[in-house]
Amino acid sequence: MNILKNEKSLLNFIRYGAIICIIVFSFIVIEVVIYQKKQEVNDEIKKQEEGYISHNKIMVENLVNKAHKLIDLEREFEKEDFKNLVKEEVYQAHAIATLIYNKNIKRADYSKAETIQIIKSALKAIRFNNNGYIFIYKMSGENILNAGFPNLEGKNLWDFQDSKGTYILKEMNEILSNKDETFYEWYWKKTSSDKKEGKKIGFFKKFEPYDLFIGAGYYEEDFKKQTQKRVLKKLNSFELKKPEHIFLYDLKGLCLVNPKKELIGLNRYDVKNSDGKYTLRDIIDYTKKNKEGFIKYTSTVKLNTAIKSNDKMSFVKLYEDWDWMIGSGFYLEELESQIEEKKQSLILSNEESVKNIILIGLIITIIVILSSFYLSKTIFTVFREYRLKIYNEMKNSLEKEKLLTQQSKMATMGEMIGSIAHQWKQPLSVISMANGLLRINREMKDFSTQEEIDSAIDDIDESIHNLSQTIDDFRNFFNPNKEKSMFKISDAIDDTLKLISSQLRNNNIEVISNIKDVEFFGSKNELLQTLINLFKNAKEELVKMASIEKRYIFVDVYKEKSNITIKIRDNASGIPSEIIDNIFDAHYTTKEKDGGTGIGLYISKQIIEESMKGKISALNVDYKYEGKTYTGAEFTILLPFD
């Protein structure tokens, strides 16, 4: 009745459960697809935003780097121009000195001192680049001419050091000893009243006739200011495609370059934005700290009147040598208008896709529901046919299982009958002998003493008791009662050995026990049947050994973690490796010639694992006993306990 009820429930589940599952699945799929579409829209919007920002970031960064590179190039060009100018001035001064020397040396009243004085007078008035002048030194360090510092004329500056600790005249002597001319850098005051020396770049040329050198130089600061003017003029004249632009401030907030020309020359360090923040201060602080990078802020300058927000992102870079900050940026509101336009387009496209998905989903759901009804009818028909087949197979299987169990019992019973015969031989012989003694005494008085007669009667009583005990032991073994109770494992092993002791003794098999006192709740008779099978198998292998060899069966019982472990081990060389994995299979035997059925170990496995909820396994082991190494099969039974 329950089976039929379960079958009906199963068929209803197939018929209606599938439909419900399909509807739920379709709904989930549609929801997932709609969600994915929304995600695609959001991802696309995010890509647009990232794409716009990335594109503009690259653009403004490139623009700033180009301006930075332009300054470097302009400095190089300007420096080269200045150096060429100084060199040219020195060349001209050298040419004048040479001309005067060549003219005077031919005179009859030629005088070196007079010639030097004429050269000095000729060169003293030369000026270039506003504050440039010519100077002349002896190679020994004495100043002959210094148009900028006439108070030095006639003084020896051999031991003079500039602010960096350089002995200028000593170095110059060393350099011009190896070549005729050179560029040189040193530190020198602009005026005699200046406390600080400025870096100077000059050109020196040796005047061989009088062991002099002629030189001139310019201050790097003058070169720097001139170069800055030229750079700012170029940057402010750049024509960039809108919205591209460049802005440039010094670190004090002075505007030097800006697309809004009216801001140039104004200091905007203290100008606040609409949020009350000192925007330029924050940008300058960021630039000083990071040297270069992107910064987001609310600008104080609006270049596009069409936008409402002044939120801006700029790339700024520090030009450290001049304490300048170069920047370029873009307004974020321009991004938002592009994104909004794309967003609306994507939303419309997404809504159309969702409608199509829902329609297709509904059509597929209806088709699948109809298919499900048809399929459930087909399944019902097939299921009914298989139910009959399964019922018949189960019936046959149960019959086979019963037959296997019966065969196992009959095989065990046959073994036990043999054991009974062995067990009874000795007590029956004792009874026969005692009975003969009593019969002789009846026929021949005084044949035996009273003590011998009493001893014979005691032997008969003891033998009868042994026979009775044997019967009780075998009756208990064959008792079909499988009720579970608490029993000692040692008692089960003792009962096993009682039943088969004669077989073991007759075959010279010694049992060595190491049994801990453990109890188990279960069917003692079922464990007894398993133990008999294992001992019997061990005995059958041991008897194949030569009679002179020792025959052992070892029994170990102990608790381990949550299991009771029973190990039965022999020394019969073990189980062949090619069959050890199959020994617990039904009808698997290697003893067909001896009438083996192959059900003993199969039934044992069923008892231990199905009935007693334990585990049984077998493996071959090597071990030592009394100093000698043995090999044998070891069966392990694990019984769970609480």
Radius of gyration: 59 Å
Contiguous low-pLDDT stretches (5 residues minimum) are: none
- Annotation field: number of helices: 10
- Widest beta sheet: strand line-up: 2-1-5-4-3
Structure, explained:
The protein has helices spanning 2-104, 112-124, 168-176, 220-237, 279-290, 332-443, 450-477, 489-506, 524-542, 600-611, and strands at residues 134-138, 143-146, 181-188, 198-207, 212-219, 247-250, 255-257, 292-298, 311-319, 324-331, 485-488, 509-515, 519-522, 551-560, 563-570, 615-625, 628-640. By secondary structure, the chain is an alpha+beta fold. It is elongated and about 190 Å long.
Which key features would you list for this structure?
alpha+beta, five-stranded antiparallel β-sheet, 54% helix, elongated
Write the layout of secondary structure elements.
Elements: H1 2-104, H2 112-124, E1 134-138, E2 143-146, H3 168-176, E3 181-188, E4 198-207, E5 212-219, H4 220-237, E6 247-250, E7 255-257, H5 279-290, E8 292-298, E9 311-319, E10 324-331, H6 332-443, H7 450-477, E11 485-488, H8 489-506, E12 509-515, E13 519-522, H9 524-542, E14 551-560, E15 563-570, H10 600-611, E16 615-625, E17 628-640
Parallel strand pairs: 12-14
Antiparallel strand pairs: 1-2, 1-5, 3-4, 4-5, 6-7, 6-10, 8-9, 9-10, 11-13, 14-15, 15-17, 16-17
Give the structure's gist in a few sentences:
The protein has 642 residues and is an alpha+beta fold.
